[in-house]
Design a protein that fits this description.
Oligomer: heterodimer
Structural class of chain A: alpha/beta
Order of helices and strands of chain A: HHHHHEHEHEHEHEEEHEEHH
Distance between the termini of chain B: 19 Å
Helix content of chain A: 40-55%
Shape of chain B: globular
Strand content of chain A: 15-25%
Number of helices of chain B: 6
Strand order of the largest sheet of chain A: 1-9-8-2-5-3-4
Structural class of chain B: mainly alpha
Number of helices of chain A: 12
Strand content of chain B: under 5%
Radius of gyration of chain B: 19 Å
Chain lengths: 307, 160
């Protein structure tokens, strides 16, 4: 979404710094029992006034839940925004109070494998609390995570995100931005070869990032190829992992079976496509189950984006 | 991991839990408690505002203005929270509330304000007075429970 040109107005854009600073203030100042109603009101405010975000959520839901009415998808989009508000509130709360969150684990055996893996890629989506998940993983297993994120459109917001992640993860979560091009690819390759865990979001592409069209919910959707090329070259596993809200101050770590990309006689693109197809199956199943926490708040179908 | 035994933040339910041999350490993770207290605070403020702003209007006008009033009340709360934060800052500059976290100080001011609204509802009679009375009774019982818990703690008995 484009931000207003004037710097004073940019602060108040949907992805502007004002709302992030306001959230930080609110988490420290508003008593916990007033937060549910205020979160509901703020979600309603954004639902009505952040039109592009609402439309994107509705468009993505129509892809994930075909056959449902537009009216129903608007209600679902509101639920998605409400969940989004709770997850960013919880991440901010963890950052300031460092209170433990209750969480349950689905696929504990894969999480245990990941914890001791020497070099691995965590592939996730814009789902649940990505930031909080990384911080809790780093804390629980005493491991550093290198997180790859899409760059923020606003410089002040980018600085705020960097500081927040540093504080949330107590320095164990390092951030790299996915526009740094070839330099980033070499950097990430070197990191996984050194035994580090690299976390990447694989449910949408941003301009300039290598992608391939794959089938998701029966439609051709561009998805990033970077994580799969990295896994193939470094010969490390990809662990699909999602950190979803399971209730009030409760989360669920969902880990799926690792995806291994093997070098074969075929071309590299074909090997990569095999891994991506497996990821698409995992992504489809996870989005179908947790559609109310899919926060890819831009249209992932190119046709929807053009509209 | 989810906790099977209910835990609370406010003193009254904590005292009850303690009397039944449970954990009386204050925690902010009880969904039901959070929403009941939040709805009570907003509800009493809403009834107070409706009583003063809508009482003289016809029934259909009152009905029509309920949603705008709720939105106005939300904006009012945002302003009140900001003004409270400034008050807390002023109190700190004058040497007070140094050890009290921001949200606790806000909680005290909000509790005070809601109790003033509840006393106003008490004066109005009818079901509004009943709701105002419920809040005042809950506040008084909670304060009493806080005193009892503090006494028990001071006399060597652990909160759990």
């Amino acid at each position: 979404m484009s931000l207003p040109a004037s710097s004073s107005l940019r602060r108040f854009a949907t992805r502007g710094i004002f709302w992030r600073e306001y959230l930080d203030w609110a988490v420290r100042n508003v008593p916990f029992y007033l937060q549910p109603i205020l979160i509901f009101c703020m979600s309603a405010f954004f639902f009505f006034f952040a039109g592009s975000v609402r439309r994107a959520a509705v468009a993505n839901l129509s892809l994930a839940l075909p056959g449902s009415s537009s009216w129903m998808n608007h209600l679902r989009a509101f639920r998605t925004l409400l969940n989004f508000a709770w997850t960013i509130r919880d991440a901010a709360h963890f950052r300031f109070a460092k209170n433990e969150f209750a969480y349950e684990i689905e696929g504990a055996e894969y999480l245990d494998q990941l914890a001791v893996a020497r070099g691995a890629i965590v592939l996730t989506a814009h789902m649940g609390s990505y930031d909080l998940g990384a911080a809790i993983f780093a804390q629980k297993f005493q491991r550093e995570i290198r997180m790859v994120r899409a760059p923020e459109a606003d410089a002040d917001t980018a600085r705020h995100v960097q500081t927040s992640l540093g504080e949330t993860g107590d320095g164990a979560v390092k951030v790299s931005y996915s526009t740094s091009g070839a330099l980033l690819s070499f950097d990430l390759l070197s990191a996984v070869r050194d035994g580090e865990i690299v976390s990447i979001q694989g449910d949408r592409v941003i301009p300039g990032v290598a992608s391939a069209e794959m089938e998701l919910f029966g439609e051709r959707v561009p998805l990033p190829t970077g994580p799969f090329t990295l896994a193939l070259v470094a010969q490390v596993p990809i662990y699909p992992l999602f950190f979803v809200r399971a209730g009030y101050r409760r989360y669920r770590i969902v880990t799926r079976a690792p995806i291994w990309l093997r070098r074969t006689e075929r071309t590299r693109d074909e090997d990569v496509a095999t891994g991506m197809a497996t990821w698409c199956d995992v992504l489809e199943a996870t989005i179908t189950e947790y559609w109310h926490q899919w926060f890819a708040l831009v249209p992932i179908l190119p046709a929807h984006a053009k509209r | 991991m989810p906790n099977a035994e209910p835990t609370f933040y406010f003193s009254l339910p904590r005292l009850v839990v303690r009397a039944r041999g449970g954990n009386a350490t204050p925690v902010e993770t009880n969904w039901l408690e959070t929403n009941i207290v939040g709805a009570a605070v907003f509800g009493i403020a809403f009834l107070f505002a409706a009583r003063w702003l809508l009482a003289s209007l016809a029934g259909w006008q009152q009905l029509l203005l309920l949603l705008p009033l709720a939105i106005l009340l939300w904006l009012g709360w945002l302003a009140v929270l900001y003004l409270n934060a400034l008050l807390v800052r002023l109190a700190r500059a004058l040497g007070g509330l140094r050890r009290t976290p921001d949200d606790r100080a806000q909680s005290f001011l909000i509790g005070l304000m809601t109790t003033v609204f509840a006393f106003d509802l008490l004066r109005s009679g009818g079901w509004l007075a009943f709701i105002g009375g419920l809040w005042v009774a809950a506040v008084l019982l909670n304060l009493l429970a806080a005193a009892v818990l503090a006494f028990l703690l001071r006399h060597g008995s652990s909160p759990a």
